[in-house]
Amino acid sequence: MILGQKQRVTLDLKETEMAISELEKNPSVVYKSVGSILVVASIDDVKKELTEKKETLTVRLQTLERQEKRLLDKLKEMQTKIQGMLGGPTAE
Question: In the CATH hierarchy, which fold is given to the domain comprising 2-78?
Fold first, then answer.
């Protein structure tokens, strides 16, 4: 579950970074998707929105990475306990 979320957030982050990169090329007109149509938008407003989205996605990705690490640590701890109960070798 976390891995899937992490992949989606990573993909969204890369797309957002690519969009920001394209805006840095100073296009003359920028269109923004509103529902199922495209409308002309202010370049500065779109840059601001994309920058905020990038920051949000970055924080979300960091949170998912921390959750993933905690779960892996907990899994290793549980594995060690189970192997200890069974008298098997401990995994590192």
Answer: Helix Hairpins (1.10.287)
